[in-house]
Amino acid sequence: SFAILIMNAFVPLIDRYFKPRRFGSQIKAKIM
Fold first, then answer.
1. What is the torsion angle, in degrees rounded to the nearest 10, for the CA atoms of residue 12, residue 13, residue 14 and residue 16?
2. 18 and 24 in contact (C-beta within 8 Å)?
3. Taking a C-beta distance cutoff of 8 angstroms, is the pair 15, 24 a contact?
4. Residue 31 near residue 11, CB atoms below 8 Å
5. Total structural domains within the chain
6. How far, rounded to the nearest angstrom, does the alpha carbon of residue 26 sit from its chain's CA centroid?
7. Taking a C-beta distance cutoff of 8 angstroms, is the pair 8, 18 a contact?
8. In whole angstroms, what separates CA 28 from the centre of its chain?
């Protein structure tokens, strides 16, 4: 469960650091 919380916390940070939406969309797809 901790890993999921960590990922959820890091995804927004990654999205902010990396503006390209492709990277964020891929991560969200993998999580889903």
1. 90
2. yes
3. yes
4. yes
5. 1
6. 8
7. no
8. 6
